[in-house]
């Protein structure tokens, strides 16, 4: 889709771009636009958090004590000033008047726009069980959540993390590094079921147990116990685990309420086309809040692709439409090497290639469909993960490499030479 030109009735010499959200997706899109058309807009950015933009992916490293907040800051206030951006941090937008092209903030500001970019991200899922509002129950989404967890670790010793996905395991590792006794509760019998097969999940659980993390599997939370403050987590089968801190990492949902109230087309996320344009041609959306061709997004790679396309659209530059690609997952836990990409489940017409080395705790599973690789799961030895991901993403013909694929890029390239 060709981007709209500047409205003829714009009262300024430059068009007005308002950005709702000050996270990674929003600012990456602004960066992409500025690289091509730095003088095109007067830019106002509204952010819910009272900070500049930071790398949310590295919050687990801050929790683990491996990084400081300053280390994960992407754009300090000086960057906004240098680029002429009016940053309204800590003042989220509460309504969008599409008829008059005006946003209104919680603090009472009203700012007009010619183009609006929505990047409201996602909200953590907090299980609505009795006791979920008790003191000591936190999500794991923002700097403030990490600060609360670190403060709790100074005064308490027992943490329960609800959710055995990627975020939950990184939270558990961080709390362990803070000196807490940590239990992870998961509703089924395998960890990271969206990214791993059963074999890799078992190896992962064993590696994390060796670090000192306890697991309560196939357990559904029925209640968070406590008077004023949490004291335990109770499950549907009657079991309990003592807790001074409960961290909810049971998933996220696209934050679409603002867009929905504005009358934009929303399903699970804000529905966008291949240009990242919403049902209103003056409004674009990127990141975890969007839904594109039925899919929603939580990993950084597709969001960077969205930012590139949307930034070009806002800059008035023709660009190839946004296209979903295979993405890869890594777990950020020191000493645990894990990688997955593509369709690792396979199905009719697919072929598995598997390497197991119990002595070294190495597991590799490659999923092939005819002469293409469609998925990979690696545990223990992930050195070739990026190469496998490229083979999957590029749909490379691997017919000449079949006999060597499990042994990695170096051997494959030497045999193919």
TrEMBL record:
Cofactor dependency: FAD
Keyword set includes Flavoprotein: yes
This protein's name: NAD(P)/FAD-dependent oxidoreductase
Protein family: Belongs to the FAD-dependent oxidoreductase family.
Taxonomic lineage: Bacteria, Pseudomonadati, Pseudomonadota, Betaproteobacteria, Burkholderiales
Domain of life: Bacteria
Domain NADH-rubredoxin oxidoreductase C-terminal: 328-396
Entry-linked Pfam families: Pyr_redox_2, Rubredoxin_C
Gene3D superfamilies the record matches: 3.30.390.30, FAD/NAD(P)-binding domain (3.50.50.60)
Domain (FAD/NAD(P)-binding): residue spans on this chain: 16-293
